[in-house]
Amino acid sequence: MNGNWWKEAVVYQIYPRSFNDTTGSGTGDLNGVTKRLDYLKDLGVDVVWLTPVYKSPQHDNGYDIANYYEIDPLYGTMKDFDELLNETHARGMKLIMDLVVNHTSTEHDWFQEAKKSKDNPYRDYYIWRDEPNNWESKFGGSAWEWHEATGQYYLHLFDKTQADLNWENPKLREEIYRMVEFWGKKGINGFRLDVVNLLSKGETFEDDHVGDGRRFYTDGPRIHEYIHEMSTRAFLPYGMMTVGEMSSTTLEQGVLYTRPDRQELDMIFHFHHLKVDYPDGEKWTKAPINFEQLKEIFTKWQEGMDSGGGWNAVFWSNHDQPRAGSRFGDGSPEAAKMLATTIHLLNGTPYIYQGEELGMTSPAFKTIEEYRDVETLNAYDLLREQGVPEKEVLSILASKSRDNGRTPMQWSGEKPHAGFTNGTPWIGLADNWETINAENAINDSSSVYYHFKQLIQLRKKHPIIQSGSVQFLDHLHHALFAYERVLDDKRLVVVSNFSSEAVEVPLQIHEVLISHLPIQSVDDQKFVLPGYGAIAFFA
């Protein structure tokens, strides 16, 4: 691969807690990942991304880091990590880690020192105020927590156990860079940066009279300065790939973050396309997908990043989202393949979330006791306090909870827990694990797994997929998602049917690159695309 190797790569995200348990604890571990590396190599992925495995009290499943230099015993030891890194590299794959530098756990030594007194040297590593403003936590309630002993409030944009770091403090920034260097010297290949566009809060902390405060700290006043500094000081010297998780960012900012001459990030995740079932921005309600809006967002971001010189990370699923097949389709293998074709042939680096290549679905939990996620439990309490009936609340959670993407990887039909663990899993499985699992998929040449494998191989073979320009087609159709990739004199057309009904498509098919359902030609000017069908062909 070249210097921009990540433009040709496919990344596989692992949520270690739910991937593979080798100890019987019911929780996945690092050795479990190592044991499944051959599976990932056979699939064809280039990069393995681990969500946080640092020492943590696990209030937010590891995104509350208590020590950046230690592996949480839940997952194993540093020796286990070193073996995983070495074995990943031995197979020609790369390993990136998750990095959370917007906040730490309140159990981190820095915060433990900071709360001792107002004049403690670590006090200014965090953000303290005598009076809170009206900003809201993204997990619900005020973003400020009172600390009785020192008589001030500290900022937490997420859970109250996740105290926001003060990036205005240069000493704090130096600590972060030293920590990144520690991992760089170990030989990791990069980082996914959690909510990284929230680092700069400014210093005024004024009330937000029209919103929840996010407009003051999203893409804040010094954010590009901070990310450029972190990149040049810590990422670039080790040749690291970086992908930033961007909360509520704009296209214009996305271009700035990822334009190579600015030396900030290689690519970003934005989430606007995953809010098309949030009516009026409200997550915790049940609503259909706004398909027109979905296409508008992809058009804007794909064409805008392309023309602006930026770079997208493209994805449907991750550990914070419901399963894509259940959300954008009917949970069928056909829908899973259609979604995969749609995303993998776009402009950007594709990300596969564990189990997506099997067509895993959301679990449809039926009781609140089955959920583990702090955001979900908070939402349940809030909705019940608002008088929403229990049945309706549970229906909302079944469609929106982050736990929908966190159920254990379904490895086999082995009872009782799909080959994930010999113990009691930390969270329950989807009921369909006896049919949807890796063992069955590998033994079925028509499975979702082999469709993903083919898409990965096509990306490596065809430069038009890696670097062709992108333009969207037929914006107004009620079911079709269509675009074309262009490179030199080649033109690749991709058409996906997001409905269960067959649709007539007024295009002429030439050389078919990939299709998972039979395509019926009407005449030389149009064809019929089956429900949840997708096709890519050269025009």
Description:
The chain has 539 residues and is of the alpha/beta class. Among the domains are: 110-155, Oligo-1,6-glucosidase, domain 2; 465-538, Golgi alpha-mannosidase II (Immunoglobulin-like), CATH 2.60.40.1180. The protein contains 16 helices and 23 strands. The chain has an eight-stranded parallel beta sheet with strand order 13-12-11-5-2-1-15-14, with helices on one face. It has a five-stranded antiparallel beta sheet with strand order 16-17-18-23-20. Strands 7-9-8 form a three-stranded antiparallel beta sheet, with no helix packed on it. Strand 8 and strand 9 (152-155) form a beta hairpin. Helix 8 (251-258) runs parallel beside helix 9 and helix 11 runs parallel beside helix 15. The two termini are 28 Å apart. The relative contact order is 0.10. The mean pLDDT is 96.
What is the subunit arrangement here? Answer: single chain
- The CATH topology label of the domain at 465-538 is Immunoglobulin-like
Percent of residues in β-strands: 15-25%
For the termini, the CA-CA separation is 28 Å
CATH class of the domain at 465-538: Mainly Beta
Low-confidence stretches: none
Radius of gyration: 23 Å
Query: What is the SS-derived class?
Result: alpha/beta
Largest sheet: 8 strands, parallel
Global mean pLDDT = 96
